[in-house]
Structure formats: structure tokens, C-alpha cells
């Protein structure tokens, strides 16, 4: 099960997921100019970030929107980035947030679990219902693939729909989390977590405590660190003995060089230092 592989990566390296949300405007000008195409600039930038962090990051999340925004050039960079990560046996999460009727989901599964854009995990939006997840499950069972399904997202507007309560005061996201955990019981790894994971933002500490307690077999992908205001305190509540989740940071890592004088010439080292700092902050919080 992919959950076991990710669990062991976290054990070895700590719970950090590096987010490769590579907006071309983040690439330092002098680096960008070394290459003839946007595709090559994006890919080579990612490659430097990956090489600088692969020993301290449990996994890498590639957010497809940043690549789609650059058209075919971007998608080529996306494909090459995933291939590079997989060639180094690093765990990949394709942040594609798909959600559609089962027949269409079948095509999304084929597109992102096989072929040009193959990834270990993909993110899905389960708010269309559990039938929209069914086509992915055969890949989870037979091909060591995994899902991270949205539960309680990190954005302020998460409250608009995810906080709607039933008559007993139970919120929509709590129902979603419980349904996903139940579905995940058929895909349990020996580590005690399922390959059907959940996305929970580290921007709200109270929800974190409750979710960690109730969803004891759900491995979490935890965005919201850094640029969205989440910190070690909020992220740590989702972890158990330092495991059971990976904390994503994208902008704070990719743009770390902007905080250092002359940093654009060593953006990869700045990214590495940011990951080390983040890992230390979370570890300190866990040891309190
Ligand atoms: O609830 C969610 C779900 C996904 N994301 C994604 O995570 C990263 C966050 O990027 P930062 O730059 O570290 O803020 C981004 O790819 C989002 O699409 C999320 O933020 N919240």
C-alpha cells in the first residue's frame, strides 16, 4: 500500500511535503534566461528545488493549475517534473482536485495514475459523492496508488459550505471525513493508516484536534503552512508521534530566496533552509 511507503518516508525524513506550485514569475530572471523555453525553465527550476530537498522532504506535491496556466509548455514541464521525481523514487502527489461522475472519473484515473502524468497520489474532491471516487479505487488496490480527498480545506471560505450543520450540530466536513475513513478501511496499510487520505488545512486548530482524534486511520495532507498563515502549532495537532500526515508548504519554500540578499542566485539552498526550519518548528511543537 502506498500509505506504508509514505509513512516510512515520514519516519525517515520528517513530515514535510514540498509544494511545487511553480508560477513562472517565481523563477529568478537570471535562471530563467539560461533556457530557451518556458518548459525547460520551469522544469530546471523544479529540478533544483527537488535536488536540494529530496533528503528532507517526505513527498512532493505538484499543483497542476500552475502548469496548465502555461499551456502545453507548462504541461510538458509538469510531466517531466513527475517523471523526474518518480525516477528518484520520491513520492508524488498530483494536486488536481478532481470530482465528477464515475464515467468521467474513470478517465481522470487513467490520465493521472497511468501514462504521461502518472503520480503516486492524486487529490480529489469528494463533495459529489462517494460514487465519484469508485473508479480510482482499483488503482489504490492493484497499483499502489492513493487518494487525498478534501475534508476541511484551508481557505477562509471553507466555512461557507463545510460548516453547515445537521440537526445534531455535526458539520458537513465531519460527515465527509467519517465517510472517507469508512471507505478507506478496505485500503489499510500495515502502518495503521489507509491509502485513502484526507486534506485538512492547518489554519484552524480546534478542528484539527477533533479530526485527528476521530479519523484515527486517515493519513492527512495538511496545506496552509506559511503563506496562508498556518504554523507549527496548528500543523502539529494533525500528527501523531510525528507521523500520520504531511505538512505542505509551497510559496514559502519556492520564494524563500526573496528573504535573503542575493538569494536569487541560490534559490535552491534558500528553499532547503526553509524546509529545515519548518521541520524543526514542527518537531519542537511535537516535543512540547
Ligand atoms: O485546502 C486546501 C487544499 C489544497 N491547497 C493547495 O495547497 C497549496 C498551498 O500552497 P501555499 O503556497 O503553501 O499556500 C496550493 O497548491 C493549494 O492549491 C490548499 O492550499 N488548501
| CATH class label | Alpha Beta
Largest sheet, order of strands side by side?
1-2-3-4-5-6-7-8
Find the CATH topology.
TIM Barrel
Average pLDDT metric: 97
Q: Could you say what the CATH architecture is?
A: Alpha-Beta Barrel
Pathway: Pyrimidine metabolism; UMP biosynthesis via de novo pathway; UMP from orotate: step 2/2
Organism: Fonticella tunisiensis
Keywords: Decarboxylase, Lyase, Pyrimidine biosynthesis
Pfam families: OMPdecase
Could you list some keywords that capture this structure?
alpha/beta, TIM Barrel, eight-stranded parallel barrel, binds ligand LLZGTKA7, orotidine-5'-phosphate decarboxylase activity, decarboxylase, RibuloseP-bd_barrel, OMPdecase_type-2, OMPdeCOase_dom
Tell me what you see in this structure.
With 288 residues, the chain is of the alpha/beta class. The protein has one domain (2-287): Alpha-Beta Barrel (TIM Barrel), CATH 3.20.20.70. The protein is built from 13 helices and 8 strands. An 8-stranded parallel barrel has the order 1-2-3-4-5-6-7-8, surrounded by 6 helices. Helix 6 runs parallel beside helix 7. The longest helix has 20 residues, at 267-286. The model has no long low-confidence stretch (mean pLDDT 97). Bound molecules: the ligand O=c1ccn([C@@H]2O[C@H](COP(=O)(O)O)[C@@H](O)[C@H]2O)c(=O)[nH]1. Residues 19, 21, 63, 95, 153-154, 199, 201, 223-224, 226-228, 248-252 line the site of ligand LLZGTKA7.
Amino acid at each position: 500500500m502506498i500509505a506504508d511507503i509514505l509513512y516510512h518516508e515520514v519516519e525517515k525524513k520528517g513530515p514535510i511535503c514540498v509544494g511545487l506550485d511553480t508560477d513562472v514569475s517565481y523563477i529568478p530572471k537570471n535562471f530563467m534566461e539560461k533556457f530557451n523555453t518556458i518548459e525547460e525553465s520551469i522544469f530546471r527550476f523544479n529540478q533544483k528545488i527537488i535536488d536540494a530537498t529530496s533528503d528532507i522532504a517526505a513527498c512532493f506535491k505538484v499543483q497542476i493549475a500552475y502548469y496548465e496556466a502555461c499551456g502545453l509548455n507548462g504541461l510538458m514541464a509538469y510531466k517531466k517534473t513527475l517523471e523526474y521525481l518518480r525516477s528518484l523514487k520520491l513520492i508524488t502527489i498530483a494536486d488536481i482536485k478532481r470530482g465528477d461522475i464515475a464515467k468521467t472519473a474513470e478517465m481522470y484515473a487513467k490520465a493521472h495514475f497511468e501514462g504521461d502524468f502518472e503520480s503516486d497520489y492524486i487529490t480529489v474532491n469528494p463533495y459529489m459523492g462517494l460514487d465519484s471516487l469508485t473508479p480510482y479505487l482499483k488503482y489504490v488496490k492493484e497499483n499502489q496508488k492513493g487518494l487525498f480527498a478534501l475534508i476541511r480545506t484551508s481557505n477562509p471560505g471553507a466555512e461557507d459550505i463545510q460548516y453547515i450543520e445537521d440537526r445534531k450540530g455535526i458539520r458537513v466536513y465531519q460527515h465527509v471525513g467519517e465517510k472517507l475513513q469508512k471507505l478507506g478501511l478496505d485500503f489499510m496499510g500495515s502502518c495503521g493508516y489507509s491509502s485513502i487520505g484526507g486534506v485538512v488545512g492547518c489554519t484552524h486548530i480546534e478542528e484539527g484536534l477533533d479530526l485527528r482524534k476521530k479519523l484515527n486511520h486517515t493519513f492527512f495532507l495538511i496545506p496552509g503552512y506559511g503563506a496562508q498563515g498556518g504554523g507549527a502549532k496548528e500543523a502539529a495537532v494533525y500528527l501523531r508521534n510525528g507521523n500520520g500526515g504531511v505538512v505542505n508548504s509551497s510559496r514559502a519554500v519556492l520564494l524563500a530566496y526573496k528573504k535573503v540578499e542575493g538569494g536569487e542566485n541560490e534559490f535552491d539552498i534558500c528553499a532547503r533552509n526553509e524546509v529545515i526550519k519548518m521541520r524543526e518548528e514542527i518537531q519542537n511543537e511535537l516535543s512540547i
